[in-house]
Design a protein that fits this description.
Blueprint (H helix, E strand, L loop, with lengths): L5 E4 L7 H8 L6 H18 L3 E4 L7 H4 L1 H10 L6 E3 L11
Helix pairs in contact: 1-2
Amino acid sequence: MRSGSHLFLVFLQWFHPLYLYDKKNHFKTQKFVVEKTLPELYDLVTRYKPDIIWSDGDWEAPDTYWNSTGFLAWLYNDSPVKVLLNNIHKIISEDYN
Protein backbone atom coordinates (compact mmCIF):
# COMPACT_ATOMS: atom_id res chain seq x y z
CA MET A 1 0.00 0.00 0.00
CA ARG A 2 1.18 3.50 -0.63
CA SER A 3 1.18 6.29 1.93
CA GLY A 4 -2.32 7.51 2.65
CA SER A 5 -3.84 4.08 2.02
CA HIS A 6 -6.82 2.81 3.95
CA LEU A 7 -8.02 -0.66 4.80
CA PHE A 8 -11.59 -1.87 5.27
CA LEU A 9 -11.54 -5.32 6.83
CA VAL A 10 -14.56 -7.56 7.06
CA PHE A 11 -13.87 -9.80 10.04
CA LEU A 12 -16.98 -11.89 9.82
CA GLN A 13 -17.32 -14.70 7.32
CA TRP A 14 -20.74 -16.08 8.20
CA PHE A 15 -20.21 -19.56 6.76
CA HIS A 16 -16.54 -20.18 7.46
CA PRO A 17 -16.24 -23.58 9.21
CA LEU A 18 -14.19 -22.17 12.09
CA TYR A 19 -16.71 -19.39 12.68
CA LEU A 20 -19.56 -21.90 12.65
CA TYR A 21 -17.64 -24.04 15.14
CA ASP A 22 -17.25 -21.08 17.50
CA LYS A 23 -20.87 -20.08 17.06
CA LYS A 24 -22.00 -23.60 17.88
CA ASN A 25 -19.97 -23.28 21.10
CA HIS A 26 -21.68 -19.97 21.92
CA PHE A 27 -18.42 -18.13 21.17
CA LYS A 28 -16.68 -19.74 24.15
CA THR A 29 -14.06 -20.97 21.67
CA GLN A 30 -12.05 -18.65 19.42
CA LYS A 31 -10.76 -20.87 16.64
CA PHE A 32 -11.88 -18.48 13.89
CA VAL A 33 -10.29 -15.51 15.62
CA VAL A 34 -7.04 -17.20 16.63
CA GLU A 35 -6.47 -19.27 13.48
CA LYS A 36 -7.80 -16.94 10.78
CA THR A 37 -8.86 -13.41 11.63
CA LEU A 38 -6.07 -12.17 13.89
CA PRO A 39 -3.19 -13.68 11.89
CA GLU A 40 -4.58 -12.03 8.76
CA LEU A 41 -5.03 -8.70 10.53
CA TYR A 42 -1.50 -8.71 12.00
CA ASP A 43 -0.12 -9.61 8.57
CA LEU A 44 -2.06 -6.83 6.84
CA VAL A 45 -0.85 -4.20 9.30
CA THR A 46 2.75 -5.43 9.27
CA ARG A 47 2.99 -5.95 5.53
CA TYR A 48 0.97 -3.03 4.13
CA LYS A 49 1.16 -0.47 6.96
CA PRO A 50 -2.24 1.18 6.41
CA ASP A 51 -2.98 4.65 7.75
CA ILE A 52 -6.58 3.79 8.60
CA ILE A 53 -8.31 0.55 9.53
CA TRP A 54 -12.08 0.58 9.35
CA SER A 55 -13.79 -2.46 10.75
CA ASP A 56 -17.53 -2.86 10.91
CA GLY A 57 -19.59 -4.77 13.40
CA ASP A 58 -19.35 -7.22 16.22
CA TRP A 59 -22.63 -8.79 15.10
CA GLU A 60 -23.35 -12.01 16.96
CA ALA A 61 -20.29 -12.20 19.18
CA PRO A 62 -18.98 -9.79 21.82
CA ASP A 63 -15.75 -7.81 21.48
CA THR A 64 -14.11 -10.26 23.90
CA TYR A 65 -14.59 -13.02 21.31
CA TRP A 66 -12.79 -10.94 18.69
CA ASN A 67 -9.94 -10.08 21.10
CA SER A 68 -10.30 -6.45 20.08
CA THR A 69 -8.51 -5.12 23.16
CA GLY A 70 -5.54 -7.43 22.57
CA PHE A 71 -5.24 -6.29 18.98
CA LEU A 72 -5.52 -2.64 19.96
CA ALA A 73 -2.83 -3.06 22.61
CA TRP A 74 -0.50 -4.57 20.00
CA LEU A 75 -1.38 -1.90 17.47
CA TYR A 76 -0.64 1.01 19.79
CA ASN A 77 2.31 -0.49 21.68
CA ASP A 78 4.16 -2.85 19.35
CA SER A 79 3.02 -2.59 15.72
CA PRO A 80 5.25 -0.97 13.10
CA VAL A 81 2.62 1.71 12.38
CA LYS A 82 0.26 4.06 14.11
CA VAL A 83 -3.13 4.03 12.47
CA LEU A 84 -6.52 5.61 12.95
CA LEU A 85 -9.18 3.07 13.86
CA ASN A 86 -12.92 3.38 13.71
CA ASN A 87 -15.51 1.02 15.16
CA ILE A 88 -13.25 -1.86 16.10
CA HIS A 89 -16.14 -3.73 17.61
CA LYS A 90 -17.54 -0.74 19.45
CA ILE A 91 -14.48 -0.21 21.62
CA ILE A 92 -13.33 2.92 19.82
CA SER A 93 -16.54 4.43 18.57
CA GLU A 94 -20.29 4.14 18.69
CA ASP A 95 -20.79 6.30 15.58
CA TYR A 96 -21.75 3.55 13.14
CA ASN A 97 -24.98 2.21 14.60
